[in-house]
Amino acid sequence: MGTSSGSNHPHQMLPPRQQQGSGGLETALSLVSSDQEPRRESPAESASSQETWPLGDSVAGKKTVSQKTEPDSMEQNVNVMHHVSNADKVSVRDIARERVELVAERMHRLPDEFLDELKNGLKSILEGNVAQSVDEFMFLQKLVQSRSDLSSTTLVRAHRVQLEILVAINTGIQAFLHPNISLSQPSLIEIFVYKRCRNIACQNQLPADDCYCEICTNRKGFCNLCMCTICNKFDFSVNTCRWIGCDLCSHWTHTDCAIRDGQITTGSSAKNTSGPGEIVFKCRACNRTSELLGWVKDVFQHCAPNWDRESLMKELDFVSRIFRGSEDQRGRKLFWKCEELIDKIKGGLAEATAAKLILMFFQEIELDSVKSFENGEGGRLMAPQDACNRIAEVVHETLRKMEIVAEEKTRMFKKARMALETCDRELEDKAKEVSELKAERQKKKLQIDELERIVRLKQAEADMFQLKANEAKREADRLQRIVLAKMDKSEEEYASNYLKQRLSEAEAEKQYLFEKIKLQENSRVASQSSGGGGDPSQVMMYSKIRDLLQGYNLSPKVDPQSNERNPFRSNP
Length: 572
What we know:
Helix content is 59%, strand content 3%. It is mainly alpha-helical and 572 residues long.
């Protein structure tokens, strides 16, 4: 915090995390403090006293896209649920209640889609989208915080999603469930056991800056670099009067919390030991007071040129509320000036012009302060001894604050050096990882080449087998044609042999009949010569038979080829 003049105070504390930044986080997440029960804030309480995350336009777009794809994702999740057995299913209550290693073993068998659905269910509870979500969250948090087995030793064996859910329940911060935020498992364990700041944009080891004051020692998870000493919460507001920093102990407090708890009041500081009380801030961490006019002047000088219209009006409103009850002439003037500028901005005054006017006002009250210092409080000339004492006090105060600044700079230098060493170690680790990845990539490349060679060999074998199959098919066709030709030839030979056999049988039968007729004729001739008469009809029959047999002997031979298609047909 600066002094009222600003020129005599070399240590200008700006709002917290200005040097650290918010880490580029743009997640729309509502948070609940881990050490306070969730409650409904009254309209008079500012959002700065709540643990909130910044909203971004991209979040609305993401919500729209998620709403469009919600039926498909629900259908996929239903399919995943059907493929998971009841024995392997895990609920958020199981994670909060059962032993770490048992749940971790079951979660290792679950698909990623089921684990994402599990995290989304807890996210809905933290967002308040589920009926009785506050009661459910309080029940889960009570289960987790009442367990004595959750320590750094046991949490090492936890599944990553299991650990993220436990940390989200313990801190009430759903950012740990966000897919774009990935902290290392040791960091999550340290956050759970209150050894690291739960603010993802801060992530400092606790106690921060090795501070062992009463607040840093007794409050679990409190970080004096980013959290309010009253509400124990943090937000991402920077370059603003929304935060007040103590000159002496460097702890931070929300302006709203300080006004509400009476930490901003009228009094006197080392700069003004007499006359009407000025507005001062009493730090809860060190119980010492600091004046606020110089603090406000420093913030406006550094940040006002970069504020837009809405931000400038909010800051003027903060300053107006701070100095509303001021009994000091400068404080009252600042209050009136802020009210005047707010009305002018509402009437159309440009924010750049308003910023210039407020900065000119600070220069004017600084000149008035110098004149008042030279002439005394009532315009009277101060006694030489009083002037020397006053100058000595200012010099002593300035030297004290310069020592504080030197200590702060030394601490910051040590911290920066440690951060640099950490970065160097991380770079070495990353270089090792890169070399390992390169070796793994080379190994994979060799494996791919080997697989490609095997594929080419198998393709050549397949082509060879296909060629042999074609040759075998052609050989089978040739053999089939030969078999058909052999069958035709064997049929012809069979028909020829059959006809020859029939012909020989017919010849034998003919010869038999011929011999029989011949015998009959001889018998008939013998009987006629002996004087007996034969039967004329029988004689005529034998004559016809003989003529037929003689005609058969004179007929041409039968061609066996003529009956090759009818081998069983008898001769005429």
